[in-house]
């Protein structure tokens, strides 16, 4: 498993949220595409909200596992 140091991913010029899982997946996909990681290898991306384990296959399938917790609850006003 490859472990990257804490990652900050900025999306659309907005400061990063507690965890940016989409950005982490995209970062690993880019690393595989550029040859920095082997396709199918498990990459641990450390974010403020926890560590995500991401795998990108040679055909571009992305699998992400990691912690999940409720950080907000709301209701719809009609």
Outline the structure in words.
By secondary structure, the protein is of the alpha+beta class. It has one helix spanning 21-33; strands at residues 2-4, 42-47, 50-56, 62-65. The protein has a four-stranded mixed sheet, with helices on one face. It starts with a strand and ends in a 13-residue tail after the last strand.
Task: Offer a quick outline of the entry.
With 78 residues, the chain is an alpha+beta fold. 17% of the residues lie in helices and 26% in strands.
- How many β-strand runs? 4
Structural class: alpha+beta
* Overall residue-averaged pLDDT value: 81
Helix content range of the residues, please? 10-25%
How many angstroms separate the termini?
48 Å
Taking Cα atoms only, what radius of gyration do you get, to the nearest Å?
Answer: 14 Å
Give the strand line-up of the largest sheet: 1-2-3-4
User: Approximately how much beta-strand content do the residues carry?
Assistant: 25-35%
Unreliable stretches (pLDDT < 50, length at least 5) are none
Number of helices: 1
Question: Would you spell out the secondary-structure blueprint of this structure?
Answer:
Layout: E1 2-4, H1 21-33, E2 42-47, E3 50-56, E4 62-65
Parallel strand pairs: 1-2
Antiparallel strand pairs: 2-3, 3-4
Keywords:
single chain, alpha+beta, four-stranded mixed sheet, 1 helix
